[in-house]
Amino acid sequence: FGYSDTFNHFLKQTQDIIIGIAKKNAEINNQASLANHAISVITSQLDELHQKITDYEELKQAINNQEYKLSPENPHQTALKKYQTQFQAQEDNSALKEEYLSQIPQNISELESSMANLSIQRASTGNFSLPDTSHRIKIDILKTQFLQNASQQLTTVENQITELKNQIEQANIQLKNNIIIAPETGTIHLNSEFEGKSLIPNGSEVAQIYPDIQKIKEVFITYYVTSEHVSLLKEKQGVRLSLEKVGNQTLTINGTIQTIDKSATKTNQGNLFKVTALSKLSNKDSDVVQYGLQGRVTSVITRKSYFNYYKDKILNSFN
């Protein structure tokens, strides 16, 4: 019943979950590694900027306190010496001091702004997903779903078995009365709707008994005409049905129109009107005519004497 395929499908989905989560975690770890590297670089840049601010503050303190030396790593030693040289050469040093000190806060402010931007960048870089550890939970959920489906399928199969047993029991009961006897003799015409079917609903018409043509010696001729010709037909008009190769001979039977449908029937050839004619058969014809034969039907619209027929034919040849 394909249950091995269902089990293999479960194993494949389980493997897909494991592979999918492993791939996702590999991407997360890669992103985390890149983020940590970026954070390390930003932290190094922040340390450099902080050191520059410290160097400016040390320069500011040296100018205010009239100190002559800075830390060995401080890059502003040259600026301090230049200030000291100018300071000693001038009598009014307040303007010079103010000029040098006014530049330091602006530089520190720019460095602090850069540090703020880097801090924001470092904070946003640290937002990355944690590794996914839900594969066991997902596999357990998948296992539960497959077990539920298997249980439902088992219940369905058991119900089908019970139903089939009941059907077999009913069939055995009906088999005893499975012979149909027609109330009269004739030709059996089976209903094509039930052809090839083993079960038929109760009360259905499975066949019709057509009268024995050899006994009743009459048949109905059914044919269809177009709308332009139906107006030429009337009840009691004569028709001729020409049949080829009936009993190794050509046969023509005559009849009279009995009914003409008032409404058209839709067919593949368009809308046609159904006409039914009754034919009385001779003993000879009734032996060879069968139900379902097809041929060419000619409707006798009017009758003429031989004299009138040839007269009209001659006159028409001159026109």
From TrEMBL:
Bilayer-crossing regions: none
InterPro entries reported in the protein's UniProt record: HB_LcnD, LcnD_C, UPF0194_transport
Subcellular location, record wording: Cell envelope; Membrane
Domain of life: Bacteria
Domain LcnD-like C-terminal: 217-304
Transmembrane is among the record's keywords: yes
Domain LcnD-like long helical bundle per the UniProt entry, residue ranges: 1-172
Keywords on record: Coiled coil, Membrane, Transmembrane, Transmembrane helix
Any one of the GO CC terms: cell envelope
Chief site of localization: other
Coiled coil: 147-174
Protein name: SilD
Species name: Streptococcus pyogenes
